[in-house]
């Protein structure tokens, strides 16, 4: 319900392996969330991600559509970077296509293991 009086985790799942990886990664580089809305503010989620991410950018709040390349340019600018300096990870093909069109390095998330391996390989090769 809108009041939050239900068991959030009965409906949603968090990828703990990936979250631990991002927590480790965030010790050496800035890690952000780029979300369509603002679910990360919901108390059960906020508690689990606290201290892992440097910040959260909400497409809804900055008035962009994550399926458009201009959204990724705006998001990068909002965190003080050029889009070419950002690695974007997502499990939705349309957002990967848009981020790539904006010049970002992209990783299509299919599983924690594959995403972690690909991110590590790309970071080493930079």
Proportion of strand residues: 5-15%
Number of strands: 4
Order of helices and strands: HEHEHHEHEH
Largest sheet: number of strands, sense, barrel closure: 2 strands, parallel
- Rg (CA only): 15 Å
What's the shape? Answer: globular
Specify the number of helices.
Answer: 6
List low-confidence stretches: none
Strand order of the largest sheet: 1-2
N- and C-termini, Cα separation = 45 Å
Mean pLDDT over the full residue set: 87
Structural class: alpha/beta
Percent helix, as a range, is 40-55%
Sum this structure up briefly.
The chain has 126 residues and is α/β, with parallel strands linked by helices. The chain has six helices and four strands; from the N terminus they run H-E-H-E-H-H-E-H-E-H. Helix 4 packs across helix 5.
Describe the structure.
The mean pLDDT is 87. This protein is an alpha/beta fold and 126 residues long. Helix content is 43%, strand content 13%. The radius of gyration is 15 Å and the shape is globular. Helix 5 links the parallel strand 3 and strand 4 (105-108). The protein contains 6 helices and 4 strands; from the N terminus they run αβαβααβαβα. Helix 4 packs across helix 5 (93-101). The strands form 2 sheets. The protein has a two-stranded parallel ribbon. It has a two-stranded parallel ribbon with strand order 3-4. The termini are far apart.
Explain the layout of strands and helices:
Blueprint: H1 16-25, E1 32-35, H2 43-49, E2 55-58, H3 59-62, H4 69-78, E3 87-90, H5 93-101, E4 105-108, H6 112-125
Parallel strand pairs: 1-2, 3-4
Helix pairs in contact: 4-5
